[in-house]
Amino acid sequence: MNHITTARKGQTNLIKENYDGLDYFRMIAAFLIVAIHTSPLTSINTTADFVFTRIIARVAVPFFFMVTGFFIISGFLKDNSFRNPDKYSVKPDTAPLTKFLKKTADLYGIAMLIYIPVNLYSGYFKQNNMFLKLLKDILFNGTMYHLWYLPAVITGVLFVYLLLKINKGTVFLLISIILYLAGLLGDSYYGLTESIPILKNCYDFLFQLFDYTRNGIFYAPVFLVMGAFIARSVKPLSLRKCIAGFIASSVLLFIEGLLLHAHNMQRHDSMYLFLIPSMYFLFQLLLHFKGNYYRSFRTFSMIIYIIHPFAIILVRGLAKVLGLEDFLIYNSLIHYLAVCLLSLVFGYFYVYAIRHIKQGKPDIKGRAWIEINLNHLRHNVKEFQSILPKNCTLMAVVKANAYGHGDIRISKELNKIGVTSFAVATLSEGVQLRKNGVKGEILIFGYTHPQDFKLLVKYRLIQTVVDLEYAQILNRYGSKIKVHIKIDTGMHRLGENYNNISNLEAIFNLKNLVILGAYTHLSVSDSLTKENTAFTKAQIEHFYKTIQNLNDFGYNPGRLHIQSSYGVLNYPELSCDYARIGIALYGVLSSAYDKTRVSIDLKPVLSVKARIVMTKTIEKGDAVSYGRTFTASEERKIATVTIGYADGIPRNLEDGYILVNGYPAPIIGRICMDQLMIDITDIPGVEPDEIVTVIGINETNQIKAEEIAMNSGTITNELLTRLGNRLKRIYIN
């Protein structure tokens, strides 16, 4: 039940992000669930107890389903899906779905483990056909009477996701309603089912699979869909309409429940026809509520839900030990209040313990950090794949810690979307990827010392042959080593010169080299000047001519690659087997001034954030930072920011700025090792602990990495790879 997550800003009626009403009602709903299992008004009036626990309290579980739909299901949908009923569609990225299912399954597993002692005491594991019974309970009923919700929400979310994936238009809405109506016939309207023998036989068969229709197939989908529908609504209902609709539908719900109860129609009492409109109006009404924000309510409500049966057992046991059965058990209202209080105590100690544990660990967002947007990474991959020739494979360049983005996590994310070709600069980078489970080909661009050749074989890495002499050293190792041959066509860094065809032939004749490919490096493919374009075309011609000569001599050069990021953007017509995409994979170009022949929609993957540690006012004539390079010409308000050149911020960025509340704040004085100072005189409401943006988007403004690199006299490649390990990487889907 703890499924509230940060909402997407694209959801129209969520822009204000006002969920206080939902959080408060989480607590109310949790106590209503306790009421269902304790019947607090039984000793006062049984009809009143029925109304309270079997009608009013039945809003609790649909509310939690709708919260999940509101935040989780709506997040699966592409933008505007609910605004155009003919275009309901889900995002191809299944990471949010997987994350939700794992989190809920983990919670379910922990809850089942907690109640194993109770199951043992009650003889649960001594039942006939125990394996089938256990399987049925795990999948549908729950291994304790209250745990059915967790498999229901897992099943329901999966079911709705598949409906959205398979069906076009609004069919899935209709299916969820039909399933709910079918569920009614196995629940509150079972009396009708019993009067029709064929229908009764069908439901008798269903009840061999699960005990009730209040599950993830019949019960959950309609409320999950309603929650998602409300999240994506263009215009929320007015407060007046919410109140009027809720009152009217609640009256009808009371009448429905009492009539069904009076005529003994109910097999169970979780599902009512008028529960649907009641929940629709109640949920929208809660979105209008504004109050103080208590995030801990989310945790408290979860603990109350999980632990309250234990509280019931403890209260009853304590009452018997103390001889207080009449007071703590048979007085149903006192019994209910005692269970609620004990559940709250459990919740308090859990929250306190979690906070205590967290206090012992540094907050990764406590000082300064990097945020990596994995959605942008996936987007950039698709953009490049859309312009590559048909048989050309994207080779992701993840050297230098994936240009500062975190090579292991980036490579694993790329593996998930089908990228299986990688390039690194050093042996250690390749070994690290392999040790962390990265799949596919890993090409090492640089030199590997002969003492480490064994690691090339052990970790299935591909070594670059930089010239004939190095090829002979590799060959003398004695074991087969996979290689790509580097051909120097004009950069004169690494590679056997294209003119030395006899040397290249000699390399191909070395028996221990398994030659899988050949490549060259274009030295000015980022430039579109006439002179540099001519040089690049000459390099390309030299490479293809060399390959043709090798083919003519009967040698197979393997898979070919010429282009890096700029090679693809400026020469997309080249037909190769690989394209080595480096800096542009991460959504940036090397320079702010660079123009390319092909324009694609690149999205920056990396942002850098820090905090303001303090603000102060300085007087005219006061100097700031080392060397007194900045002196105030008048009274100014300044702030100290928790990031410096030891984190990779260029020390010569003294004329730069960062973003505070969406406003540019000039950097003043020299950048220190661990801090920098900014002028916030003209920016309103700046307080200590404020998060500022060094690279990325803040409010409506953006600082691009290209801009910072330009102001520092360098390129983004250097800027991003210098970002230090003190900056924790936070990966965002």
From TrEMBL:
EC number: 5.1.1.1
A GO term, aspect molecular function: acyltransferase activity, transferring groups other than amino-acyl groups
Residues involved in substrate binding: 493, 673
Catalytic reactions of this protein: L-alanine = D-alanine
Coiled coil (UniProt feature): none
Pfam families in alphabetical order: Acyl_transf_3, Ala_racemase_C, Ala_racemase_N
Active site, per annotation: 399, 626
InterPro entries: Acyl_transf_3_dom, Ala_racemase, Ala_racemase/Decarboxylase_C, Ala_racemase_C, Ala_racemase_N, Ala_racemase_pyridoxalP-BS, PLP-binding_barrel
Pathway assignment: Amino-acid biosynthesis; D-alanine biosynthesis; D-alanine from L-alanine: step 1/1
One of the GO biological process terms: D-alanine biosynthetic process
Cofactor(s) the record lists: pyridoxal 5'-phosphate
EC class (word): isomerase
Boundaries of every Alanine racemase C-terminal domain copy: 605-732
Annotated keywords: Isomerase, Membrane, Pyridoxal phosphate, Transmembrane, Transmembrane helix
Modified residues (N6-(pyridoxal phosphate)lysine): 399
Function per UniProt: Catalyzes the interconversion of L-alanine and D-alanine. May also act on other amino acids.
NCBIfam families: alr, vanT-G-Cterm
Stated family: Belongs to the alanine racemase family.
Protein name: Alanine racemase
Organism placement in taxonomy: Bacteria, Bacillati, Bacillota, Clostridia, Lachnospirales
